Amino acid sequence: VGPRGAQVLPGDADGTQKALQHLVELGHSRIAYFDNPNSSDTHLSVFVRRDAFQKYTQELGIESPKLTLPRLAKSQAWEPIYEPFLRQAIIEGRATAVLTYSHFGALSLLRKAHDMGLSIPADFSLVCFNNEPALALSVPSVTAVDVPSLTMGKVAADLLLRQMESKDSDEPQQSILLTETLIARESTAAPPSIIRQ
User: Which strand (E) or helix (H) includes residue 108?
Assistant: First the structure.
């Protein structure tokens, strides 16, 4: 952001850890990650969430099935990825939980799982990023990492206004990281092996 730049970022790494910790506490030890399949998306969240998933699965002793899904072009719909992901991650890979990059991916997997005869959370638990209103209305309602978008906007606007009013040309670069929270809902439960004991 330059020598005098300021940035406000969501704590996506911490949010990833909270999501995985929630699943581990429920008894999950094999968790898959539904990544952003768009190969040209360079949004910072794509890299931070992906790297954090790899880091915290190792730290928490979580196994993750190996997936061989194609990357999609920028304008290509995500639809062709959902069924192969569920087959590789849940049916063949025996993951008992999925963390998705976004709410859009979570709702799409929820629908595709229903079409394939899979039940959430009976067959696998589901957690996503972005606590959008639709997640509380779906059946089941979806557990989500709440990214503080409104607070980010307010903090960024305040930083901008202060910088515009400042007469100090040597103001240092600022980077503010905001905390994310986990909203637990119906889509997460103990894994099937524990429920059936």
Answer: helix 103-115
